[in-house]
Amino acid sequence: MKKNSTFRKSLTTLLLTVFTLLSVQMPAMADIVSTDQLAYEQQTQTQREAVKSFLSRDDVVAQLVERGVDVADAQQRVDSLTSAELNALSEKIDLLPAGEGGVGLVIGIIVVFMLLDIAGVTDIFPAL
Amino acid sequence: MQPASFHHLTLAFLFLLMTGCAAAPQSAALLQQTQPHANLPASVLLDSVPFYPQEEYQCGPAALATVLQASRISVTPEALVSQVYVPARQGSLQIEMLAAPRRYGRVTHVLPPDLEGVLREVQSGRPVLVMQNLGLDWYPQWHYAVVVGYDLNAGEVILRSGLIRDYRLALSVFERTWQRAGHWAVLVLPPGELPLQASETTAFDAVSAFASAQSVEGVSDAARAEQADAVSAAWRAGVQRWPESQMLGMGYGNHLYGLGSLPLAAEAYQQVLAAHPDYAAAHNNFAQVLLEQRRLEEAEMHARRAVELGGEFAETYRRTLQSVVAAKAR
User: Fold this and answer.
1) Which has the closest alpha carbon to B190: B113, B109, B248, B254?
2) How big is chain A by its Cα radius of gyration, in Å?
3) What is the pLDDT of residues A52-110, one digit of tens each?
4) Which residues of chain B neighbour A27 with C-beta distances below 8 Å?
5) What is the pLDDT of residues B132-188, one digit of tens each?
6) Which of B122, B129, B173, B175 has its CA nearest to residue B149?
7) Who contacts B158 (Cβ-Cβ below 8 Å, separation ≥6)?
8) CA distance B50 to B60
9) Mean pLDDT of A104-127
């Protein structure tokens, strides 16, 4: 058993060395924009559009106005959301039931993002 | 506490009513059309599609085996259980349902939420995997089935579903249950085929997911070559349908580059650039191919253009330009 694990360890080391050498010798691969990168960029774009179209829905606009959020401002802020934030938001939007129950929650998140963006967390939510 | 729960009850009741009256707009539109549908015959039944009566909760593997068999992959529901069935949830996740066919060399395409489109696919001989919520939004009963036919005169859709081989269901009822599952409809196709209704974006998503699933370790050279051919065929079909597509063209070019087919990759990137002369990523990738082909003057021109245009991947563009300049200095 012990022998086996020593063998494994040295095999791992060997493989690691080989892979490292290989990756050093193939810098060319790194210089194209990969399909995965493009897919990721595209996904972010799609999510941005989804969030924007959510923000232009009549019921959503009404709720934003109710909370004193400037709609044009909110739309503009979507451009500065990071892909992680977009991901979180559009996931929430996707999960919204056909009814309107969850809209308030998503708008709440949007407002929080906006506030974070404008003033920084500690100014507004000292508890956080 | 009591008023609150009473309130909830009222809400639930109202919601029930609402759901009960929920419209099935697509079915209504389909059935109201008095004129015969262009290329959509009144009834179709794909009788040769196999049927696997499902075990309890295992509609996922059964439905998946049905569509895989229909695309000429011989696999049983039992073999799929470990891949898509989650015992704790007594069901299968959509994402697993999409992933499993890729392991069998099939491309999964999510269809747009269009009922007529689904029927058109069936009419063209392709059974469609669908998800339904047989319950209600707040009490979901998820179910997978396969659309194998329809009868517009009777206003019915025909499914391989549960224990019934030809389950005839009113189109409007089907639409509501399908709508409650987010209009989820999926085609499982051999690489090289595309849905009738597809967009550049959905085709890209389908093919790129298929391509990443194929590049797995631990298969023989022969199997790898076969996979590479399958991926080529999938990209090529996309590029042929949308010759001006940025994303599909890049995907195809990158795949060819990965295979070491420099001339073909160059051709693919050039085709993208012909339609999108200001697309930085295409300039960059083309420059890299030109560099490896030792066409350094052209490589420098495209690398510089990419750096000029900049954008999301500016760092990569600068590196490409550096290596081109270094190659020239040598």
Assistant:
1) B109
2) 23
3) 888 888 888 887 788 777 888 777 777 877 777 788 777 777 665 544 456 666 777 76
4) 323
5) 988 887 777 888 999 999 999 999 999 999 899 999 999 999 999 999 888 999 999
6) B122
7) B45, B147, B148, B149, B150, B151, B166, B167, B168, B169
8) 15
9) 55
Please enumerate residues of B whose Cβ is less than 8 A from a Cβ of A.
15, 137-138, 179-180, 201, 204-205, 208, 211-212, 247, 250-251, 254-255, 257, 281, 284-285, 288, 291-292, 312-313, 316, 319-320, 323
With contact defined as beta carbons under 8 Å apart, do B97 and B144 qualify?
yes
As for the ipTM of the complex, it is 0.78
Measured from the Cβ of residue A68, the count of other Cβ atoms closer than 10 Å reads: 7
Report if pTM > 0.80: no
B289 in Cβ contact with B266 (< 8 Å): yes
CB B112 within 8 A of CB B178: no
Residue B287 and residue B299: Cα distance in Å, rounded? 4
- Residues in a beta bridge with B147: B128, B159
The two structure tokens encoding residue B201: 């974006």
Sequence-separated (6 or more) residues with CB below 8 Å from residue B320: A31, A32, B284, B287, B288, B291, B303, B306
User: How high is the mean pLDDT of chain A?
Assistant: 67
Residues of B in contact with A28 (CB under 8 A): 288, 291-292, 323
User: Distance (Å, rounded) from C-alpha B11 to C-alpha B174?
Assistant: 25
